Amino acid sequence: MKLFSLSLIALLTCTSEVRASQPVVIDRLEASVNSSLILKSDLARFRKSAQLRAQLDPLFGGTPLAKKGSAASDADIVDFLISERLITQVFPASNADVEQAISSIQSANRISRDALKTALKEQGFDFDEYFELIRTSVSKQNLIRQEIQPKVTISDEDVRTHLDQAGVSDTANDPAAKSFHARILVVSPKNFKSPSAARQTIERASKEIQDGQPFEEVAKRVSDDPSAAAGGDLGVVPGDVLSKEIRDALVKLSPNQVSGVLGGPKSRYFLLQLLGTQSLAKERNQKVTDEVRAKLAAVEYQRQILLWIERQRQGAFVHRKS
């Protein structure tokens, strides 16, 4: 099939500067999709609006072409615009559809039409350009809703398979996937004349607790940690927020049990009392599952969109400049 290689030209009338025999190229045909032409000027408009497109176009933002933006090659832009024309031809958006979409955007952002126009002008766009980009966005949203979404189903088995292949295991027994309610009593050697004096203080505090004095009362009296006023109560803290030293010590304790003296003279001595634990595995596993499901869905969406566009190309009359 022969491809178009013609340029659109205008013959300027004869003036004192330009003779009628001198043709001047004012635009050039890059491709055609059925009866729709893609001109060189369309590529320029694409480059100008690339940043705005990334915010409005559901099939553009986040793509390699979007990352290239105005620096994208003519060939890449033409290929994108061909696919876009195929979509807008099958899913045309009326002016009323566009107005409804813009009104929804204004409502969500609590902005008036005049304020929207002003914001666009400050970015170098006029409202008509924005209107047409929204038209394209609505067409693509219709494609996704009507043709793509019904074909994309990510099962629990798909998610499990992906997790197995990625080597992601259940976090039920991971200390970092637990939250701990604990108290702490701290003695810092820097506050004593010698490390040995600090050591003796923490050991006396430990013995007092072992002899039956409440941990919180001893902590209020002895501890130099900011939590001392609350009896050393740290509250409920996720395991991955705690230092490994503290987390590993708490894992070994039963509820209400108090640790031996921990730490050392170079940092601090401390005692811990575990009040309780709560597993975060269910929440963490659900978060990972949701993230994987979304990732797999995005990949499948892209695959289905490419398949749809390829089917449309096969049935369309598409020409590209040779």
Short description:
By secondary structure, this protein is of the alpha+beta class.
Helix/strand layout:
Layout: E1 7-11, E2 23-33, E3 36-39, H1 40-56, H2 64-68, H3 74-90, H4 95-109, H5 113-122, H6 127-148, H7 156-166, E4 178-187, H8 195-210, H9 215-222, E5 233-238, H10 244-251, E6 262-263, E7 269-279, H11 281-315, E8 318-320
Antiparallel strand pairs: 1-2, 2-3, 2-8, 4-5, 4-7, 6-7
Helix pairs in contact: 1-6, 3-6, 4-6, 7-11, 8-9
Task: Tell me what the structure shows.
This protein is of the alpha+beta class and 322 residues long. It folds into two domains: 7-153 and 298-320, Triger factor/SurA peptide-binding fold, CATH 1.10.4030; 175-279, Chitinase A, domain 3. It is 51% helix and 16% strand. It contains eleven helices and eight strands. It has helices spanning 40-56, 64-68, 74-90, 95-109, 113-122, 127-148, 156-166, 195-210, 215-222, 244-251, 281-315, and strands at 7-11, 23-33, 36-39, 178-187, 233-238, 262-263, 269-279, 318-320. Strands 1, 2, 3 and 8 form a four-stranded antiparallel beta sheet that branches. The chain has a four-stranded antiparallel beta sheet with strand order 5-4-7-6. Strand 2 and strand 3 (36-39) form a beta hairpin. Helix 3 crosses helix 6 (127-148). The N and C termini lie close together (11 Å). Residues 1-20 have low confidence and may be disordered.
